[in-house]
Amino acid sequence: MFRQTKSVFQKLRYLSFNGQQHTWRLKSTSARERALQYQPGQKIHGFTVKEVVAVPDLFLTAVKLMHDKTGAQYLHAARDDSNNLFSVQFRTTPMDSTGVPHILEHTVLCGSEKYPCRDPFFKMLNRSLSTFMNAFTASDYTMYPFSTQNGKDFQNLLSVYLDAVFFPCLREQDFWQEGWRLENEDPTDNNSPLMFKGVVFNEMKGAFSDNERLYAQHLQNKLYPDHTYSVVSGGEPLAIPDLTWEQLKQFHATHYHPSNARFFTYGDLPLEPHLKQIQEEALSKFACIDPKTEVPSQPRWTSPKEDHVTCSPDPLAPDPNKQNTVCVSYLLGDITDAFEGLTLSLLSSLMISGPNSPFYKSLIEPKLGTDFSSVVGYDGSTKEASFSIGLQGVDEEDIERVKQIISQTIDKIIENGFEERRIEALIHKLEIQIKHQTTNFGLSLASYIASSWNHDGDPVELLQISDSVAKFRQALKENPRFLQEKVRQYFKENTHRLTLSMSPEESYLEKQAKAEEEKLQKKIEVLSDSDRKQIYEKGLELLAAQSQTQDVSCLPALKVSDIEPTIPITPVQISTAGGVPVQYCEQPTNGLVYFRALCNLNTLPEDLKVFVPLFCSVITKMGCGALDYRQQAQQMELRTGGMSVSTQVITDCNELDTYEQGILLSSSCLERNLPHMFQLWSDIFNSPHFDDEERLRVLVMQSAQELANSIAYSGHLYAMTRAGRHLTPAGDLQETFGGMEQVTFMKRTAAMADLSQIIRTLPRLKIHLFNPNNMRCAINSTPEKVSDAAAHLEGFIKDVAKNRKERKPVRPNIIEKPINPLDDNGPRRKLISEPTFHPCPMKTFFQMPFPVNFVSESIRAVPFSHKDYASLCILARMMTAKFLHGEIREKGGAYGGGAKIGGGLFTFYSYRDPNTVQTLSAFGNGIEWAKSGKFTQQDIDEAKLSVFSAVDSPVAPADKGMGQFLSGVTDEMKQSHRQRLFAVDHKNLVDVAERYLSAGQKTCGVAILGPENDVIKKDPSWIIK
Ligand SMILES: [Zn+2]
Description:
Elements lengths: L5 H10 L15 H6 L6 E2 L2 E9 L4 E8 L5 E6 L5 E8 L8 H8 L12 H5 L5 E4 L2 E2 L3 E8 L2 H16 L5 H7 L2 E4 L9 E4 L1 H9 L3 H13 L21 H11 L5 E7 L3 H11 L23 E7 L12 E11 L3 H15 L5 H7 L6 E2 L4 E3 L4 E11 L4 H18 L3 H16 L5 H14 L4 H5 L1 H14 L3 H11 L4 E8 L3 H18 L3 H19 L25 E5 L2 E7 L5 E9 L11 H7 L10 H11 L3 E9 L6 E13 L3 H13 L6 H31 L5 H10 L1 H12 L4 H14 L5 E7 L4 H14 L14 E5 L9 E6 L9 E5 L5 E8 L8 H23 L4 E7 L2 E9 L3 H16 L4 H15 L10 H6 L3 H13 L2 H12 L6 E7 L3 H5 L4 E2 L1
Parallel strand pairs: 4-11, 12-17, 19-23, 26-30, 26-31
Antiparallel strand pairs: 1-2, 2-3, 3-4, 5-8, 5-11, 6-8, 7-8, 9-10, 13-16, 13-17, 14-16, 15-16, 18-19, 20-22, 20-23, 21-22, 22-25, 24-25, 27-29, 27-30, 28-29
Helix pairs in contact: 3-9, 5-10, 11-17, 12-13, 13-18, 14-22, 22-23, 23-28, 24-26, 25-26, 29-30, 29-31, 29-33, 29-34, 30-34
The structure holds zinc ion.
């Protein structure tokens, strides 16, 4: 539901820890081997095994089954990974834009036959140790996945999910709450004006305030104009009020049927119990139907088409005159052909990825636009794939030119083909992706196979990536013009292509608002007095239902005693290489080596700080040593899994006014490429290229565009960062690096006619940032490769020794702390302390062209190791689940909202929210609710489960030991925190709410991003931006 970006949650992410290290424990028989023993034709609990295939590349065994009575399809991927996953997906192919599949996705989660309480889905978040729970509506399917590391929990969640999708209540009230309704603005006042309300209604208004999303939607609708892809599956805001409750129930009956379902399970739990439970609790109650949900092929056009749409102007666009998007989209072949799909997606990467690709050279480098269009490259999410290429941030006068270049570039590719080294680099990248261990592998697999399987493609064939790669190599060998011929067939000679342009329209928002008003009036006109009375009464009923305490005892739950009492220790060794501290962590990394270096900013002059994010984003992309930027990109692709640099602001775990500031270098490579990876870093340290102004301008424009685009999607993060700005010294730096301040700085920079000032500044930053005196490193690798990695690291430090300089820190108070808190004599990290810092309350409003708000309030609280931190963690979770969710989402109609603690701040937020001041009152009422102590032991236990499911979420081998490396948080400290979490009781919670959050006690900051707001405008306590 929420995507977290680095700036705010960095620290939280590194505090998470894997409690159950089941993933790599030794077993007598592995899950993979056990699964290999199934035989095709074998009958298990109403299913028949169809196929059993070992997929050694992905370390799994695939078992394909079919349900005998209903024809439901099933795929199990047995793999020795304890993070087990379940998902069920239905082919949902709406023929109008009322958002029926999306509203249904929300509504089935509002209560079911066996679990009739309101909103069991959200309730289960607090009764489970799930590592993931969600639901998605795609263009042509709806998917319900969850994952957990606990077997009992898996059964519980499976039971709730099955009942939700197959036997939902679908009450009228659920439809009003989640879909749309007419209601008095103030539901308790029947004289207040009527308006549209509903969670999906507001969610989609918010979604289409994002111009990138809007463009993508138009493009799909217009490229496939003849069937389900021509409508908006999520819901066109003004079409949503055409949906009736009856239509919703009908859609469920025809689409959420086993005969239209695909089940997927993944992990180390045995298959049979899953089948048994699915058969007994759901499938046995159904017969076979023909769901008639197939999507026909799109009839091909005989000549290309052009079209035009409009959007709202973006005040943060780097150049206000350049706000057009134009792109050409080509309809390709059926995605169920796995080999053709892989070929086309590889071809797409060759055409558009990185500075060596032909489209990068022909479209990005001449700077006709700020970046590629939001839709670019191969897209296999529809039954027939598409490829799109174009630019955003284009001047209207240049649109024709862009179209010409696209067609010329295609001709050139057909003539010249691709360099062999680029093809090698691409295949190397694929190899790394397969080897890199992630913690959500099951979920990645589920989404990887979802689209093709949805149209009856073979999911097992899709998993056999190496076979397809071998076939690809063979095809190239047999026919050197293999790829060029594909380009001719799919691009040059393809008449089913659409050129779509989008331009800003000054009155866009006004027109939208007017259209909504007209729609509303139409609905209101036909109301009789008794209709109005009914609306008022229904509004009150809904409000009463939302305010009622729920009996959730019907729902299964884990107990606090099911949580592991202790965490396993992750051993790390700390030593030095060439005088630089290094942390080594031995992990099953599957043949990859992960390298990180943290370089502090303590000697960097204050006026240069705002440039640090820009430095980070360009430093690995401008060329280095003997390599120009194209050669550097080539080397990085051929020899590494990527090299990146990011900013770090880490509040100290003991002291709120102390923090560490730095940049983090990260890269990975196959063991055999260690020397090449460190050579690249040496060149970047010793002789980075900064003086290519043309290249710099391309990168600056891309960054500025990316930041401007991120606000519509991550507005809550910007609001939270701003709210915390004046509460801690670290908060101020966070705002500089990742807040609205950085967005406006980059907009200004991108607008500069002359970048020579930046070109002079970057080398000054380099002197301070690449100083081995201010650096510490970390290596994660297999035990066998540690000494090899250490030797190469040593060589790297020696190579960059000339950058070593003794410099004076800028701030007077530097505190040194041992990297290993248990070893006072070991290597140390240097933190900034601001003992005289005064937090200051501030309220900031950013007026934005959105129809929805992002609201945040942040309160200065305590650091991680403080004894009250655990109580505040539980309180934030409990307040979110038991109070704020009801007020902000259910009653307020926002897409989401809650409270969190991190970086020493207790922070409230809302996401895509129709309200502002009302939400701020909800935050305040949340605090009053906590102080009143009107919650039960069950509420506390649920909050604990929820907190622990985050604390114990799995950590990938690449990320083990990072909490200690970055924040100095050791396993012992985590264990103490864990014990404090277990111990939190009712009294503690009331107590911390009073002492930290009460009006008289707190220092807080508030920030809102949203549309013009009269109430706030009139209130002089706000700063309006
Ligand atoms: Zn939704």
